[in-house]
Amino acid sequence: MSDYRMLKKNLLVVLIILLLVVVGRIPGYGAEDSFPEKIPFEAYGVLVNSGGCLLFAPGGEMGLLLNLDEYGDFEAGDTVCVAGLLVMGCATPCPDAIGCVEENSITDADFYYSPMVPAQVIISLLPDSPIDSLINLIDGFALDSLLGLSTYLVAFPDTFLVGFIIDFLEHHPDILFIQPNYLLELPEIHQISQSFPDQGQPTFLDGTEPISFYTQPGVNVINSDTANMIVTGEGVVVAIIDNGLDFDHPLFENSLVGPLYDFIDFDTFPAETEGDLYGHGTFVAGLVRLISPGAEIMPLRAFDSDGYGNAFTVSRAIYWAIDQGADIINMSFGFESDNPIIAGAVEDAVEAGLILVAAAGNNSRAEIKYPAAYPEVLAVTSLDTLDYLADFANCGPGLDVCAPGVNVYSSLAGEYFWGFWSGTSFSAPMASGTIALVLEKVDSLIPAEMLQHIRLAAEQELQWGQVVPPDNQYGYGALDAFSAVLAWSRGDVNNSGDLDIADITHIIAYLYLGGPPPTPVEVLADCNCDGSFDIADITAIIRFLYLFGDDFRPCYPQ
């Protein structure tokens, strides 16, 4: 073994030993308490040939090579999950191994596993608890924090494993929770899907061009074109947490609202950059703009150009949206299991009155991803062109609605401004846009009421048959923007935004004096939801305005 390699190995072992020694400095641990020689261990990583041995590199960190006692049929280059007992400085014939994992199990590390950022943890402390003395125990430092909260992103020497640091600190009395900074991803990373640019580059003229954008089948499926005759989402702010936006795209002229932020490059210009998922954020934002052309868009870049982000960055983006006055947050990304820091951000957003929408995921699984799996979030999956669940789309208990997600047409970044893409990422913004339409009509709904409203307004009669909600594959049915808007528009037959005496006189003139029909659609006159227009509808408005003050609630498809 070379002197350099021996020195490197010894230094790593010394650092681990030093970490064990300082355990006695944590309240609750005494010097008389011996730290276990074998530490419970679980990690994601890669198998490598090194020094004539097959070794495991947790998180791909080549300076942390470990010897396993069981490799199964796996070979060098395989990405795997390993669980067992970690022993540092064990006897091994492999010169590059700094430790062993005994009694280990080894399995395929597919994309359902949540990998983590090496050498980082997220720590949430009790109020007024100092962070400095705590992170000194691990030779760490605070990289960032959530404004107004005692929650910190902490870095430490990369010679230490994340799981080891968590085991070391999790029982500290000042800590509310400690977790890895999990890597998150946009669903289309692992789906066999990509954008297909429309190389014809159609010219842009708002409302008329390109035809493929404004007249695509999805608009008819969710009836957003009819809903836009009543409302456009004006005055509503939709925050889009994604991988940025192409600010040169003409679709977004005069539609953006700030302050904006890029949590990847740490600046105020969250522009997309070229990579494997180039165009994703722009595509998502275009669909919000399609469904609610009057809404304002707040792009927040929390994912890189290849579609990867992390739990802390996404949480920062959620809190940014809260603080900067967003009404809706679109989250076209996912992760596999509950994540305390994001769960807390979701709860705080809902408490602040924001409505959250998320994609169910593209793994063809009967289990929806988080954050869509949180009950406070509207979970949206994808339909194909025949109203069946798309072959890539996740579903399962907790699913709320489905929307078009196959060969959707929207804005792209880069040389070609428009194109096609498939994924649940592109069904979610249709729901966000629909909620923006409803919010323009009635802004008094709390998030739970809005989610229930979108569910009840969904279309249950699909091309293939009837959805009986709540259905594990289709939730409450297909998103229906017109039904959602109509529910709060009945009786406003002159489309003034108010229900008043003018609506009564308009209906009377329409029914009995040959006056003009309700504007813009006749069904606005069906105030009592019985499917016809008659004196009973006039009576319903009079009762609401002048007699009993009955709550003029929406009616829904049966």
What does this structure look like?
The protein has 558 residues and is an alpha/beta fold. It has 4 domains: 3-108, OB fold (Dihydrolipoamide Acetyltransferase, E2P) (Beta Barrel); 116-182, Alpha-Beta Plaits, CATH 3.30.70; 188-486, Peptidase S8/S53 domain (Rossmann fold); 490-558, Type 1 dockerin domain. It contains 14 helices and 22 strands. It has helices at residues 3-21, 132-136, 162-169, 211-214, 217-221, 224-227, 280-291, 311-323, 340-351, 428-441, 447-456, 481-486, 501-512, 535-547; strands spanning 39-50, 53-58, 66-68, 79-88, 99-108, 116-125, 141-145, 151-155, 175-185, 196-197, 237-242, 261-262, 296-301, 308-310, 328-331, 355-359, 377-383, 401-404, 408-411, 418-421, 461-462, 465-466. The protein has a 7-stranded parallel sheet, with helices on both faces. Strands 2-1-4-5-3 form a 5-stranded mixed sheet, with no helix packed on it.
